[in-house]
Write a structure and sequence with these properties.
With about 90 residues, the protein is an alpha+beta fold. It has a single domain, classed as 2-Layer Sandwich (GCC-box Binding Domain). The protein is built from 2 helices and 3 strands. A 3-stranded antiparallel sheet has the order 1-2-3. Strand 2 and strand 3 form a beta hairpin. Helix 1 crosses helix 2. The longest helix is centred in the middle third of the chain and has 16 residues.
Length: about 90
Amino acid sequence: MTGPPSKTKYRGVCWHARNKRYRVKIGHPGVTIGYFDDAEEAARQYDAAARILFGPDAVLNFPFGSDRVEHRTRAMTKLIRAGLLPA
């Protein structure tokens, strides 16, 4: 077996075979937020980015889950670098 399946049950999260980690992408075109060892941690990072980009209309993996500061900080940095948010 080469690793987990390429698709996961989480929105915005897929297995990246080359890095052997879960990748988080959001938006169109997809901006890579980061790579994670755990699919659930990756999904929480996606949720933080989605809240920033789409606000209360965001479709989340964990709609009642916590939104940790480190997730928001990482997501905002990546989104600003990608030009999706003003600096």
